[in-house]
From TrEMBL:
Belongs to the aldehyde dehydrogenase family. InterPro entries: Ald_DH/histidinol_DH, Ald_DH_C, Ald_DH_CS_GLU, Ald_DH_N, Aldehyde_DH_dom, LUC3-like. The lineage of its organism: Bacteria, Pseudomonadati, Pseudomonadota, Alphaproteobacteria, Sphingomonadales. This is Aldehyde dehydrogenase. GO terms for molecular function: oxidoreductase activity, acting on the aldehyde or oxo group of donors, NAD or NADP as acceptor. Keywords: Oxidoreductase. The keyword Oxidoreductase applies. The active site is at E243. Residues 18-464 form the Aldehyde dehydrogenase domain.
């Protein structure tokens, strides 16, 4: 890529004060672009710019702020294909899925442009009025991971900005370019300082979350980093939203055709090469249909076209970065010791970080691939006999993000879904994330809510005004 990308600080597109670093295309394993690297001084400037812009932005009419979100959506829509192509290059996902992510971004921006955190009257009785107002918090630090760099940014930016906050974004070091391209476009639409972007190679996150002028941290990433973010927020009792890792179970009930449900579960596990917080990460199947289900999933895995995401027809792209690729390989090697690999199992012998869809059966529950978040195109399939037993096994996890239940009898499937202790459980569907529906993790999968009205409120402070007429003594 010839174009030199820039950081966005205080309304200006600037070079990195600490030089630049390579961005690698995971389909080749080779650098294809340079990313500007922010200095600590630029981080301070970005926060100072966001702080300076806050009073005027917060005082702007909410309809005007919403309209600017609409303009961002329009500008993005005009360049969706360009964004999708860059997304494939830096992230690896097939172009169709990259287009899907970009269309999702438009949906999020437009869903929030009309949302308002209006005052609510809690009491109006005998002269006593109690009103809950919602005020913006100030500077929001947004920190994003590398699996969905664009949509996870929009899920933070849209509610933060429409409620009157300003933002400093720090994208993941391996997928910064689409965020910088968005910054370019935003610099022509938003007032200076309202949205700032700095990039790093993993050294500025802690400084940003610990910055005294950051009022709220909106973080999506691993549970391990999330714990550090929460600790850093504690020093000043900052507001924090954590969207962290997951180990979602898919529970298949015994009234479905194993072949038909196998396809859905497979797709839920393999989209974005399994690098989705709410991908199916372990599948539980009744003993009497276990063999047929495993056979069909293995067949689908063998059919997959694993290649560079920019090539037409590719169904599964590479794993996004070398570190994650090594981790997935390690989990597969460990699984080979304890279970049976029935598809995939060996990385492709070519440049880039390619692991074909890998299916493992007959693993014990304490295998690493069952207990840990694999975050790659690898699915363990586990057998069960009894529904209470499988619910307990699904819940035996430190994670609590999502999950799916599959059954013909919808009432029965819904009853099972109610017993899974995660933030979301989908019945007979997967990945049905919608900006109008709140999304949150339980247990170590997160804290607070993203999306929906509750997600909007996370960017505000509740402020109660409780008034009665003055009582003469
Ligand atoms: P990660 O935790 O390694 O990195 C996430 C971000 O945190 C990056 O921008 C990174 O530079 C930054 N960071 C690193 N150290 C930091 C520190 N000390 N303080 C502040 N920020 C710091 O995560 P990842 O590997 O990029 O992403 C994969 C993880 O994200 C998976 O666990 C996945 O499940 C999770 N995820 C969760 C959701 C959700 O909504 N719950 C969505 C997508 C991904």
């Amino acid at each position: 890529m010839d174009k030199q990308m820039k950081l966005l600080v205080g309304g200006s597109l600037v070079d990195g004060g600490a030089g630049s670093f390579d961005v690698v295309n995971p389909a080749t394993g080779k650098a294809f672009a340079q990313c500007p690297k922010a200095s600590e001084a630029q981080l301070d400037e970005a926060v100072a710019a966001a702080k300076a812009a806050f009073p005027a932005w917060a005082a702007t009419d909410a309809d005007e702020r919403g309209a600017l979100l609409g303009r961002l959506a329009d500008a993005l829509e005009a360049r969706t294909a360009e964004f999708a192509s860059l997304l494939t290059m830096e992230q690896g996902k097939p172009t169709r899925q990259a287009m899907g992510e970009m269309i999702g971004c438009l949906f999020v921006l437009r869903a929030f442009m009309d949302k308002r955190a209006d005052p609510v009257t809690l009491r109006d009785k005998n002269g006593n009025t109690v009103t809950e107002h919602r005020t913006p918090l100030g500077v929001v630090a947004a920190i994003t991971p590398w699996n969905f760099p664009m949509i996870l940014l929009m899920q933070k930016l849209a509610p933060a900005l429409v409620t009157g906050n300003t933002m400093v974004l720090k994208p993941a070091p391996t997928t910064p370019l689409t965020s910088l391209l968005f910054a370019e476009l935003a610099s022509e639409i938003l007032p200076a300082g309202v949205f700032n972007v700095i990039c790093d190679e993993n050294e500025l996150g802690a400084k940003l979350t610990g910055h005294p002028d950051v009022a709220k941290i909106a973080f999506t990433g691993s549970t391990a980093t999330g714990k550090k973010v929460m600790a850093s927020a504690a020093a000043m009792v900052k507001r924090v939203t954590l969207e962290l890792g997951g180990n979602d179970a898919a529970i298949v009930l015994d009234d479905l055709d194993p072949k038909a449900v196998a396809r859905k579960v497979y797709e839920g596990a393999m989209a974005n090469a399994g690098q989705i917080c709410v991908a199916v990460k372990r599948a539980y199947v009744p003993a009497n249909m276990y063999d047929a289900f495993c056979e069909e999933v293995a067949r689908l895995a063998e059919e997959a076209i694993v290649d560079d995401g920019s090539k037409q027809g590719t169904t599964i792209g590479p794993i996004q970065n070398r570190q994650q690729f090594d981790r997935v390989k390690e989990l597969v090697e460990d699984a080979k010791l304890h279970g049976k690999v029935i598809a995939g199992g060996e990385p492709l012998d070519r440049d880039g970080y390619f692991m074909p869809p890998t299916i493992v059966r007959d693993l014990p529950d304490d295998a690493r691939l069952v207990r840990e978040e694999q975050f790659g195109p690898v699915l363990p399939i586990l057998k069960y006999d009894d529904i209470d037993e499988v619910i307990a096994r699904a819940n035996a996890s430190e994670y609590g993000l999502g999950g799916t239940v599959w059954g013909k009898d919808l009432d029965r499937a819904t009853e099972v879904a109610k017993k899974i202790d995660t933030g979301t459980v989908w019945v007979n569907q997967y990945l049905a994330i919608d900006p109008r529906i709140p999304f949150r993790g339980s247990k170590q999968s997160g804290l607070g809510t993203e999306l929906g009205d509750d997600g909007l409120k996370e960017y505000t402070q509740a402020h109660i005004v409780n008034a009665v007429p003055f009582a003469e003594a």
